[in-house]
Amino acid sequence: MKKNLVVIGYGGMGGWHVDHALKSDVVNLLGIYDIKKERCDLARSKGIFAYDSLEEVLSDPKVDMVTVAIPNDSHKEVVVKALNAGKNVLCEKPVAMNLAELDEMIAAAKKNGKIFSVHQNRRFDVDFLAMKELNDSGDIGELINIESRIHGSRGIPSDWRGEKEHGGGMLLDWGVHLIDQILQIITTGITKVYCEFDHITNKEVDDGIKLTIMFEDGKKAYVEVGTYNFIDLPRFYLRAKNGTAQIRDWREKCKVVKCKHWHESEVVPVETAAGLTKTMAPRDSITVDTYEMERPASDVHDYYRNFVKAIDGTAAQLVTHTQMRRVMKVMEAAFKSDELGQVVDFDDSDN
Amino acid sequence: MKKNLVVIGYGGMGGWHVDHALKSDVVNLLGIYDIKKERCDLARSKGIFAYDSLEEVLSDPKVDMVTVAIPNDSHKEVVVKALNAGKNVLCEKPVAMNLAELDEMIAAAKKNGKIFSVHQNRRFDVDFLAMKELNDSGDIGELINIESRIHGSRGIPSDWRGEKEHGGGMLLDWGVHLIDQILQIITTGITKVYCEFDHITNKEVDDGIKLTIMFEDGKKAYVEVGTYNFIDLPRFYLRAKNGTAQIRDWREKCKVVKCKHWHESEVVPVETAAGLTKTMAPRDSITVDTYEMERPASDVHDYYRNFVKAIDGTAAQLVTHTQMRRVMKVMEAAFKSDELGQVVDFDDSDN
Fold it and tell me: Which of A75, A238, A338, B98 sits a CA distance of 20 to 30 A from B351?
């Protein structure tokens, strides 16, 4: 049976959740609530029911679950209230401003026996899924390092996303997705984190990040978010023991160059601009296979489908509390690293 | 008048210098010397005179200059001997194993009043020259950061370049060029260095580097050398206040996207794989100009031309002792950073 949903916050992502819910086979949109009256009026003008207050939403016994899509600094208060009111809660990312807030939210979920998760919709990104599929298949061997980049050129949005007190900044915005994706690909323990922030269009919050995550087995991940990049670098780049993979753009397929033979009978040095090089001479088709992967199938509706199954107890929730805490801890380590200008140790023992 | 040259070491780069000298309008190749008899025989078989010993070269009064192209750990001994014998010395890179060695070599040059420099031939690379030209022109404004990458997929060569005692490793091999280029583009003081080494095909020496150089005015440079990259990332990537530039491959032109107007009247959010984004929405031609730069003219023969002029006192030497020391100091800081796993401070006060 469909679960009755109210979307709290009717801004950009709130609107996305509403549109999504209207097409969903697992939820039934009861309505929305937004702290701004004009947003409620906008919903009503589209024929969507709007509650007059958060209390009205939470005291409505028909409501099974709420989706929280409001500025980051308000997540904790609203989420905890909703959980205490016996509602299941799906929260937009980043789920919290810090680990202490998140732990309060998790405690409220456990106390009330309700499902609480974060909307990591980018687990359904086809580019990420292709990288994960390639890595899990072992087709080019064990991963050495992976690089995940997202580049725009508009600076940081001029709304609350540019203000520290509201949880602005690109680490909390896009970083949270890219980190979550990486931790789905590399599953070993994290040992160290190094991060440098950009402050090109905004001095208060980071408008770009360059984050390195080091793992106990020597694997490394690099996550880059840029909002001042008028040319974009490839979305994903992965080196493994037997080859390299790249996704240039999220619209494109994953290109794989797999090494069949390490040695060639002879390597002809190539002349480069002002000198010659044997080390950097390109390989030919004798020693490598080049192919494109088929794009994996993906349906972002599976996120709500899983959430509803989790409420019914017929599936484990896709994005677990442990995963939410771990991503938050990486972000806290990244903030600390940038502040200190140093590599920081990461304690992964409680995960 | 042409200067009489002897090339010491007749391996890969020694052979390059010989071929180059045979076409030069400023040097006259007297011959070569190699510690291995078979290399001397090879030279003779090609009609090139080969000396029987280093002493024979250095005691030959006809010799104006020597080019030293031997394994890195032998540079200092041979260079100092040659300078003390009154020869001008052009040394292959890296000029020395460490700063202490280099300072001995510089002292010998000063004591004997001879020209001593390092063969930074990659100052004549057209890709580097395009980046420098763009930056110096100010066409896209002040530089924010620059990334310089060179990728191969053959691992580290199996000769002395794979052995620590002979000065192997990619930092000393390709890193030395890329660092020198960067310091020609960003000319402010260095404050910090962070470096991570690869050890994929070789445990003894680095077979790849990821090096960040931080400057006092906030500019940053990233230098990456990879020998296990079956797909290569762009050769150069530069972000400036008014745009971005990229050179995909040293054979290609520099692509520039210049921002004409920061704001657009309206930004239409784009749907990405599993969500929508306004921040990362691409720009259209209303706000940016996209163009390709003409490839700068370059003639690597200008290196020897400058060297000969420096001997004659009619030009300053292109690659100065200060520049050589600074590049060496960055490499020493990079070794230290990788060893400590930390960002290290850089003292640029003596440069």
Answer: A338
Contact, A134 vs A140, CB < 8 A? yes
Query: Three-state SS for A199?
Result: coil
The pLDDT assigned to A274 comes to 63
The ipTM is 0.93
Residues B321, A322 contacting (CB under 8 angstroms)? no
Is A125's CB within 8 Å of B273's CB? yes
Q: Is the pLDDT of residue A277 over 80?
A: no
CA angle B16, B17, B18 (to 5 degrees): 90
Q: Measure CB to CB from residue B154 to each of A255, A279, A298 and give the nearest one.
A: A279
d(CA B156, CA B200): 9
Confidence of residue B271 (pLDDT cuts 50, 70, 90): low
Virtual torsion, Cα A18, A24, A26, A32, nearest 10 deg: 10
Q: Do B255 and B246 contact (CB within 8 A), yes or no?
A: yes
The Cα A342–Cα A194 span in angstroms is 7
- Spatial neighbors of A108 by CB under 8 A, at least 6 apart, are A79, A80, A83, A84, A116
Rounded Cα–Cα distance for residues B40 and B60 (Å): 17
Distances from the Cα of A150 to the Cα of A138, A157, A174, A181, B227, angstroms: 25, 15, 8, 13, 25
User: Model confidence over A194-221: pLDDT tens digits?
Assistant: 999 999 999 999 999 999 999 999 999 9
Task: Determine the Cα–Cα distance for residues A160 and A166; give it in Å rounded to an integer.
Answer: 6
User: For the residues B22-45, what does the mean pLDDT come to?
Assistant: 97
Say whether B230 and A121 touch across the interface (CB within 8 A). no
Q: Which residue has the higher pLDDT, A57 or A157?
A: A57
Buried b (16+ CB within 10 A) or exposed e, A128-167: bbbbbbbbeeebbeebbbbbbbbbbbbbbbeebbbbeebb
Amino acid at B6: V
Beta strands in B274-316 (DSSP E): 275-277, 288-292
Count of pairs with CB atoms under 8 A, one residue in A, one in B: 176
Contact: A229, B220; criterion CB under 8 Å: no
Give the predicted TM-score (pTM) of the model: 0.94
Interface check for A150 against chain B (CB to CB < 8 A): the answer is: yes
Q: Which residue of A has its CA nearest to B243?
A: A230
Look at residues B163, B100, B42 and name the one whose alpha carbon lies nearest to residue B329.
B100
pLDDT in tens, A321-348: 999 999 999 999 999 999 999 999 999 9
Average pLDDT over chain B reads 94
